[in-house]
Amino acid sequence: MKNKKKKIIILSIVAVIVALGIVGYFQMRAQLEQVGKTTYAITEVQRGSIEVKVKGVGTVQPMNDNTVYAGFAGTVRETFAEDGDTVRADDIIAVFESSTLASQRDALQTQLDEADAAIAMMRSTQGSKTVYSPIKGTVKAVFGKAGDSVDAVMERYGALAVISPDGLMEVSIENTRTLKPGDKATVTVDNKSASATVISTAQGKAVLRFADNGFVLGGEAVVSDEQGAVYGSGSAELANPVMVTARGGTIDRIHRQEGSSVSRGSRIFSLKGEILSPALYTHIDQRQSIKADLDAVLEDMEALNVRAGTDGVISGLNLTKNQTVQEGSALFTLQSKEKVKIDVDIDELDIAHIEADGLASVSFDALPGKDYGAQIVKINPIGVSQNNVTSYTVTLVLDDVPEVMLGMSADVQIVSRRAENALLIPIEAIQIVGGERFVVLEGDIDETLDATPATHKVETGITDGVLIEIVEGLEEGDRVAVPQVRISNMQQMWNFRPESSRQGIRQ
Q1: d(Cα 212, Cα 168) in Å, to the nearest integer?
Q2: Which of 171, 292, 283, 154 is CA-nearest to residue 222?
Q3: Quick check: 309 pLDDT over 90?
Q4: Inter-residue contact 377 to 397 (CB < 8 Å)
Q5: pLDDT confidence tier of residue 410, bands split at 50, 70 and 90
Q6: pLDDT of 201 strictly over 90
Q7: What does the alpha-carbon distance between residue 473 and residue 480 come to, in Å, rounded to a whole number?
Q8: How far apart are CA 381 and CA 413, in angstroms?
């Protein structure tokens, strides 16, 4: 009796399992039939902005490498920095010694001391209080007046007076009419005229000489031909001026005025005050020359202190104590961090859409979560071919990025194309048939078919891989069908994810 009951229970269980299997089979069959059908999500055509970005990678480099060269021949006495050190402008990096400069300094210092001694001995010597004409001629100009400091007049005009020894003047003009030496012309100064002759032409200038007809020194001289056509104009100057000079004291009296005739040795000025001897002035002039030479040597010796010309990081510094360095040798390079660049290689298919002065976005693995703006400053027009693909180097500059370090790897995105106020739809809505692009409109969907054929033709523009620009064929607000993939229960159990697959295809 017990065996009979047990048998009935087993048969009942088997029957239930078979029944469930049959129901499951028909449900699975129905699902598989549904999986074979294409479903659609409906989206409206909307207006917006779309960008096409070109990606690249590069390394942070200094925009300017400032190489420091030795302006002298010398020996390293001491160094104060090493490769990789960050320094500021005017920091001393190394100090050199130069036996040649030291010898020159010592010799000039000795000469300077001797000149000072000679000047001290001659301080009491006196010069003449009368200034004489050095030549026969006509006083053309007197620059000082009674009471003026002689040295002040000399400093301003270079002379106390100027004498014309031959009564000739000249003017220089632009040679726009191709004047030649020997050509004749007329010179007019303040309504006074004289005949002039071209004496030289060089470097686009023509110099004409003429007799002094009482012309004002420095007055405007207009040069013209016989018919009155003007060649040009310039300043009327003496052809062979003789300067009357003196040193020290003040002008007490002027014995010859402008226009006076003088002989050689004629008295022109009387002076008063302290007037030193010409020999003393000679020593003073020599001392000034020696001092100028000494200052130049000391300036060269100061250059033996090699300084950083700008803020930056030192590289290429390889100096050792007592090392001899030749003039013109490269000492080190300063890599400035104030402005850095990134060179990115761009494929030939994308380079045509990238322009200088364009903008880019830069990120760094070492600085996660931050994006930096950069500007394109150069596109190398010469491409480099590798594996039958040509690429072009694009240089970008970043300003004021203290946290970015030289050598960091960078990911760059350059906006190559952009469309504003464009009609946009998901790129999955586009179907390509025979090389042309079509979409399915919401009203075209036929539920009786496994898939509705796309018959509405469109023209497309740029795409960012997610959205695509519609140039023609749709209007804002049109409803477009985007093909979807139905997920069955079995697929869900198998963790099948068509959406992720579709996104992978999209990329």
Answers
A1: 5
A2: 171
A3: no
A4: yes
A5: very high
A6: yes
A7: 12
A8: 20
State in Å, rounded, how far the first CA of the chain is from the last one.
70
pLDDT at residue number 438: 95
Residue 499, judged by CB atoms within 10 A of its CB (0-12, 13-18, 19+), counts as exposed
pLDDT value of residue 8: 64
Tell me the C-alpha distance between 361 and 83, whole Å: 31
Grade residue 503 by pLDDT with cuts at 50, 70 and 90: very low
Query: Can you spell out the DSSP letters for 427-457?
Result: GGG-EEETTEEEEEEGGG--TTSSSPPP-EE
The answer to whether the beta carbons of residues 311 and 57 sit under 8 Å apart is no
Whose CA is closest to 316, among 93, 96, 98? 93
**Rounded CA gap, 152 and 98, in Å?**
41
Here the tokens at position 331 are 């000492």
Q: What are phi and psi of 433, to 5 degrees?
A: -130, 120
% the chain with pLDDT above 90: 50
Give the SS3 label for residue 246. coil
pLDDT tens for 17-41 read 655 655 555 555 545 454 557 788 9
Distance of CA 243 to the CA centre of its chain: 49
* C-alpha 505 chain-centroid distance: 44
The span from the CA of 299 to the CA of 295, in Å, is 6
Q: 3-state DSSP call for residue 151?
A: helix
What distance lies between CA 79 and its chain's CA centroid? 32
pLDDT tens for each residue of 107-118: 999 999 998 888
pLDDT greater than 90 at residue 451: no
| Token pair for 220 | 């405007």
Query: How is 99-145 classified by DSSP, letter by letter?
Result: HHHHHHHHHHHHHHHHHHHHHHHTTT-B--SEEE-SSSEEEEEE---
CA–CA gap between residue 173 and residue 170 (Å, rounded): 10
Residue 74 identity (one-letter amino acid): G
Q: What is the rounded average pLDDT of the residues 270-274?
A: 91
Q: Is the pLDDT of residue 499 over 70?
A: no
